[in-house]
Amino acid sequence: MNSLSFTNKRILILAPHTDDGELGCGGTISKLTQAGNEVYYAAFSACQQSVIKEFPSDILITEVKEATAVLGIKPENLFLYDFEVRTFNYRRQEILDKMIRLKADLKPQIVFMPSINDIHQDHFTITNEAMRAFKFSTVLNYELPWNNFSFNSTCFIELEEEHVKRKVEAMACYKSQAHRNYCNADFITSLARVRGTQIEKKYAETFEVTRLIL
Question: Which residues pair with 79 in a beta bridge?
Answer without folding.
Answer: 42
